[in-house]
Amino acid sequence: MVKSTYYSRQRLPLPQPAAKQWLKKHEESCCLSEADRRGPFLAPTRLLLAENETFTHSLNFTELKSLPGPSLIVFDLDFTLWDCGGTWCDCLSPPFRIDQKRIVDRTQRHIRCYDDVEAILDYCNQQAIPLALASRTEQPRWAKELLDLLAITHRFAFAEIYPSSKVRHFSALRKDSGVAYEKMLFFDDEMRNIREVGDLGVTAVHVANGMTMELFRAHVDRF
């Protein structure tokens, strides 16, 4: 039986300079409503700008949605963006720590992003493509902590991280981003997720052995 876990919306620290350039082009997508979405699960991550921060940009989110290619790229976490020592992040053993520049859990399992992930995220930043996360992990707090330790939290404008059908994740992403399912591109390692999200109209791509640039570019370029 899945236990319900409640999260309150939190304001994240301001992104690093590299992310600010990205945010200049997506102010509308990042400045989300402060109203909490009620329900048994709330995404633990929301990227919000500080109240005194203002940005100018040459390409707003509305314009982006009318351009060719995906308007939102969504990634699963386990076995897609990261390798948690050959298991799922909710099977790890906290506390997590950095040991000689490696992120490990209590049993010394090594948590890392797949080799091409940094380059993929950089490519999306350069192309001004907003990113999101959709994970059904049963330990959202652990996932959030690992994202912070890996220093990639700021890369994502939206995050739906809680145990649920991915249909619920994508319903929230569509509502929050305003992007139609048909303009979303999704990468996940589980076929059940590929099938149910694909049925929504999302272009869903199966990831067999972690994200690679070859797989990513093949589907972005022909979107």
Automatic annotation (TrEMBL):
Gene3D superfamilies from the UniProt entry: HAD superfamily/HAD-like
Source organism superkingdom: Bacteria
GO MF, one example: acid phosphatase activity
One Pfam assignment: Acid_PPase
InterPro entries in UniProt: HAD-like_sf, HAD_sf, HAD_SF_ppase_IIIC, MDP_1_eu_arc
NCBIfam families registered for this protein in UniProt: HAD-SF-IIIC, MDP-1
The name this protein goes by in its record: Magnesium-dependent phosphatase-1
Species per Swiss-Prot/TrEMBL record: Bremerella cremea
